[in-house]
Structure to design on (166 residues):
């Protein structure tokens, strides 16, 4: 006879047996959700500033026709919008999986933060606008705060308990 409703799986048992996430992990998740929201603001700013992107492209190479400038600006906005949407998804995924005590998620979040730092440096070197720098700076600070909280001793203990319960 088959069971109509499944019982706890090994994965759900591990999360339930390890207890709720400690405050540092809950706060890290809040910062990650804030990072997702701020990235959403960046997405809006990216789309709203296409005019200044066109101006910057035209300044960089005045020989381009308006059609080339418009095409380049549109491509830039689309590429950045896709990047922002992926970023929002990653922020949310990292918040949820870290709250569940998945130790791989803490490592992935750390790697993503390192990549964000490198991309941020490149962004600054590219002559970013003041609004862009401020918005990206807030996103970076949310990431920094989350990473610090994820590596505190209480967080490490939670991840270790989850690993042991698995």
């Amino acid at each position: 006879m088959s069971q109509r409703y499944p019982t706890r799986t090994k994965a759900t048992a591990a999360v339930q047996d390890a207890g709720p996430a400690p405050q540092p992990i809950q706060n890290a998740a809040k910062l990650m959700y804030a990072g997702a929201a701020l990235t959403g603001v960046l997405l809006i700013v990216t789309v709203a500033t296409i005019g200044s992107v066109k101006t910057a492209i035209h300044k960089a190479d005045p020989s381009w026709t308006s059609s080339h400038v418009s095409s380049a600006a549109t491509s830039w906005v689309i590429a950045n919008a896709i990047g922002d949407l992926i970023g929002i998804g990653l922020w949310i995924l990292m918040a949820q999986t870290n709250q569940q005590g998945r130790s791989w998620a803490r490592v992935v979040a750390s790697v993503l933060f390192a990549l964000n730092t490198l991309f941020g440096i490149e962004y600054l070197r590219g002559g970013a606008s003041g609004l862009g720098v401020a918005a990206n700076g807030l996103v970076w600070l949310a990431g920094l705060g989350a990473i610090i909280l994820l590596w505190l001793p209480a967080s490490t203990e939670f991840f270790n308990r989850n690993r042991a319960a698995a």
In short: The longest helix spans residues 66-99. The mean pLDDT is 88. The radius of gyration is 21 Å. DSSP finds seven helices and no strands in the chain.
